Amino acid sequence: MYNQKMTRSISMKEPLDSREIEQAILKVVRSGHLARGEAVWKLEKTLESIFQVKHAVTVSSGTGSLHVSLLALDIGKGDEVITSPFTFVSPINMIIACGAKPVFVDIGEDYNLDTIQIKRWIY
Hints:
This protein has helices spanning about 20-30, 40-50, 60-70, 90-95, 115-120; strands at about 80-85, 100-105.
């Protein structure tokens, strides 16, 4: 059963208070390279090193990451993608943007996709 006990998490409403973070942000903004540039290149190289992969590519949003992930998996016309109806609209939009069909499977008490429902859909 889902544990409703409160847990400590990172606040979504209060900014981190750090002069170092502020200076790093200002450096990027002043560089004129918000989506590409030295900071992004360094981040991608760091991620390649950490995960020991040949290539790491960053994107500008969660929606962008969903789109690129679906394209990388060659999801397209005629494909069905199992997803949750208990989500933001972006996953559904990106599935449709790739030409695929979203298939909604309900969630369990833990708010994750219900694996029994997934099995029923697949088999």
